[in-house]
Amino acid sequence: MKSSLLNAIVDAGKGSLIGAANTIPGVSGGTIAVVTGLYDRLIASVSGFFRNGWRTSLRFLVPVALGVGIGVLAFARLIDAAMTRFPSQTSLLFVGLILGSIPYIARVAVKDGARPAYLIAFVPAVAILVLMAIVAPPAATQPLTDLTLQSAILVFVAGAISSATMIIPGISGSFVLLLIGMYSTFIRAARDFNLPLLAVLLPGLLVGVVVVSKAINYLLTKHHGWSYAAILGLVVGSLAPVWPRVGGAWYLPEGIATGAIDLLAIGVGTGLALLLGSGRKDQHQRVTVKGGCE
Question: What is the domain extent for residue 158?
Fold first, then answer.
């Protein structure tokens, strides 16, 4: 019983990191799910919710979902303040998280043997993310605050689109929200706890997650090596959009003190990835061929 409670608390903590990451344009919640070792289990539990036993799925999904919600609501202000006061160091912390996860993802990708053909999936995935980093996001739009039929449809559809992209490693759901002009609406709704908008947003998020999870689960179970080669490419490529910029140019530290702080931020992120990822190998092995979780 204590072990189950501890696992639930740990999963909720990891979920809060996913939620916090999804509030930052350029940072992928899917990447953080991979970093923390939750990715395969999340995809399998969502896509096989009834097929694999809904009680088992709920025992895993509820703590994670609560954590994601807490991460979005509780960390929206904190992340906003950190990005305002320490934008480069906050971004470099996430760079460290990504760097710390790459060795594990690479091992999973080649666990059945490395194949040169996997580069066909890896290279385009890297290129897509680098291209996204080069393309500047559009200017912020005014947030929607009142619930009307038109705004409800927009929020629902935007929620489905963003959640679908959020669970793809390397693809930033927040960046996609910026592209479709809904980022400020989502952040304002989370920050002000706008219940009417959130009540429309959450079903949209659920629809996007379920639909895309089923597609990803099929790829992971039928084409595991190819899928993880693409995931590795997306994660490696995500270093480009996550790396901070100043005035449109790639950020470089000025001075020894600043460089030391930046290295510390990267080191903390890398260490956190290794700490949160402890036991990831076992978690990955618990995902069955049918896509379920034990």
Answer: 2-285
pLDDT in tens, 140-173: 567 787 878 888 888 898 888 877 776 777 676 7
Q: Kindly state whether residue 209 falls inside one of the protein's structural domains.
A: yes
In a domain, 159, yes or no: yes
Among 86, 55, 68, residue whose Cα is nearest residue 16? 68
Q: How many domains does the chain have?
A: 1
| pLDDT tens per residue across span 159-214 | 888 777 767 776 767 667 776 777 778 878 877 888 888 888 888 888 888 888 88
Would you say residue 294 lies in a domain?
no
